Amino acid sequence: MVTQELFGTTRGGVPVYRFCIENASGASVSVMNYGCTIQAIRVPDRNGTLTDVCLGYRTLAEYEQNNGYLGAVVGRHGNRIEKGIFQLNGTEYHLAVNDGPNHLHGGICGFDKRVWDASIEGQSVMFHRLSPDGEEGYPGNLDVRVTYTFTDDNRLLLQYRAETDADTVVNLTNHCYFNLSGEGKGTIRNHILRIPAGSFTENDADCLPTGAVLSVEGTPFDFRGSKEIGRDMDVDCPQLRNGKGYDHNFILDGGDGEKVAAELYSPDTGIAMTVRTTMPGVQFYSGNVLDGPVGKSGVPYETNMGLCLETQYFPNAMSCPHFPSPVLHKGELYAHDTSFTFSCK
C-alpha cells in the first residue's frame, strides 16, 4: 500500500509530498519528492517492534535549512570532483566549488535540493526530473528517474535510470544516514560492519581520492571479516586523520553486475541490513561531522550517530582515468540498482 500526503511547502511556494510505502507486515518506508529523500525506514527489531533506522527531520523547512544531504539523492555527480573542473570531449567544464577546494554532490543546488515529479506505480514510487543543459555547469539535458520499491521481505530497492542528449557525467547515489539501533539512539560505533573490499582509494587532506589504490590488509580499513566500526577508528592513521574517521571509497569485490556492498548489524536491536549494488564502489562515511541538527525524535545528531553507505562510481574519476568512468554518452542508458534488505538476528 502506498499513501500520499502533503509534507510541506518550499520557501519558493512549491508543494512537497511524502509517500509511505507499507508492506504486508506493516514495515514501511517514507520518501518525499524534495530531493528524492528517504525520510523514514521503519523495520522490526528482534522483539518485533518497528524501529526507524533512518536519520531525518520532522519538517520540510529543516531539510531546506540543513546541508547534510540526509536521505537525499545526490547528483548529477555524487561525491567529489577535483577543483570543480573536468574535461570531456576536448571541452573544460567548471562546476561550483562547495567543499573546500572541490565540487561535492552536484553543487550549490544539486538534485538533493530540487522538487521532483512523482507518481505511484503499484508498490513503488517513481521520481522524475529533467536536469537542463548547463545546470550547475554540467553539459547535456539529462532525463532522470529514480524508483523506490519496498517489498514484503523488507527490501528497499532503488533503481536509477538516466538518458542524455549530449555526453555528460553521471554518478547518482543516495545519502541516507543509517542507525540500526534506531534514529536518535546513540552511536554507530558499536555496529558490526562487513565490506567485501580488498582495496580502497587513498584520500588527500580534503577527502579527495589521489588516484592511488591502497590495500586494506593490515589497516583499519579491513572490514572483510566483519568488525565493530569503532574498533580501529581512533588508530593514528593518516587516512583516518584525513577523513576525521571513515570517509572513503571502497573498491568492491565481485566484478561487474550485482554484488554485496556491505552488511551492517546492530547488537542493540538485532536489526541487520545487507546492501547490494551494481556499482563498483561504496563510500563508507561514519558520520564524522554531524554537528548537532535536531532529528525527528528531538535528539540532536552528533558525531557518529549515523553512517552512510553510498554506492557509486569512484570519486574524482574524471581526474583518474584508471578509475571506472562516470561518463554517460548520448544514446546510452544509465542503469544502476542498489538495495537495502533488513532482517533480524
UniProtKB/TrEMBL annotation:
Keyword Protease: no
Pathway: Carbohydrate metabolism; hexose metabolism
Catalytic reaction(s) noted: alpha-D-glucose = beta-D-glucose
Keywords, in A-Z order: Carbohydrate metabolism, Isomerase
Domain of life of the source: Bacteria
Enzyme class per UniProt: isomerase
Pfam assignment, any one: Aldose_epim
UniProt-listed Enzyme Commission number(s): 5.1.3.3
Family label: Belongs to the aldose epimerase family.
PANTHER family: ALDOSE-1-EPIMERASE (PTHR10091), GALACTOSE MUTAROTASE (PTHR10091:SF0)
Descriptive protein name: Aldose 1-epimerase
Organism: Anaeromassilibacillus senegalensis
